[in-house]
Design goal:
The chain is α+β, with helices and mostly antiparallel strands. It has one domain (3-150): NADH Oxidase, CATH 3.40.109. Helices cover 33% and strands 15% of the residues. The chain is built from six helices and four strands. The chain has helices at 3-9, 23-34, 53-60, 95-112, 125-132, 162-165, and strands spanning 45-50, 73-80, 116-117, 138-147. Strands 1-2-4-3 form a four-stranded antiparallel sheet, with helices on both faces. The radius of gyration is 17 Å and the shape is globular. The mean pLDDT is 97. The protein binds flavin mononucleotide (FMN). The site of flavin mononucleotide (FMN) has 8 residues, from loops. Residues 11-12, 118-122, 157 line the site of flavin mononucleotide.
């Protein structure tokens, strides 16, 4: 599978088989996240892997969707805003971008292993922070459920065309 094939294969999975994910596979996708680049190489990201059913239930309750209950594991991606690079000229905080790149590595690596993932940002961030008792500089950025996908018919990716997406030499 070349890169374009892999990137096409990765799709949001919202229905998982009742089967846990092997620890070595979880470690493998986390390795993909670990080697992701970050601004100034400050690496302001952390991942909490949730497999314990009791904690899983608490995290699932931060995003009330029936489908999330099928996830055998959820990786909580967090950003450390104190550690992230802030651009001197305007103070812009690049933590979110750094976390997003690492998540993208992780979701692609998961797809390569036949695992399904889905970004979730529309969750109760405050409650999630309370569950892990995170300090105020640490922000839960996304939940990434991960597991073996229930087979679904392949769907066409709805994306803007290259012409809509790209301009050459002007805005
Ligand atoms: C930053 C971000 C936040 C997202 N948040 C959610 C979410 O809260 N719930 C959800 O079901 N999907 C969420 N998604 C998944 C998108 O809906 C999905 O990626 C998009 O529709 C494209 O579909 P695909 O991932 O299958 O290619 C999110 C995706 C991204 C990149």
């Amino acid at each position: 599978m070349n890169f374009i094939e892999l990137a096409t294969k990765r799709t949001s999975v919202r229905n998982f088989e009742p089967k846990s994910v092997e620890k070595e596979k979880l470690l493998s996708v986390l390795e993909a996240a670990r080697i992701a680049p970050s601004a100034a190489n400050f690496q302001p990201r952390k991942f909490i892997v949730v497999t314990d059913p009791k904690i899983l239930e608490l995290i699932q309750a931060t995003y009330h969707r029936e489908w999330l209950l099928s996830a055998p594991a959820i990786i909580v991606a967090l950003g450390d805003h104190r550690k992230g690079w802030h651009r001197k000229s305007d103070g812009k905080d690049f933590t979110d971008i750094d976390v997003a790149i690492a998540i993208d590595h992780l979701t692609l690596a998961a797809a390569e292993l036949g695992l399904g993932t889905c970004w979730i940002c529309n969750f109760d961030v405050q409650r999630c922070g309370e569950i892990f008792n995170t300090p105020e500089n640490i922000e839960p950025i996304a939940l990434i459920p991960i597991g073996y996908p229930v087979a679904e018919p392949e769907s066409v990716k709805k994306r803007e065309s290259i012409d809509q997406l790209v301009s050459w030499n002007k805005y």
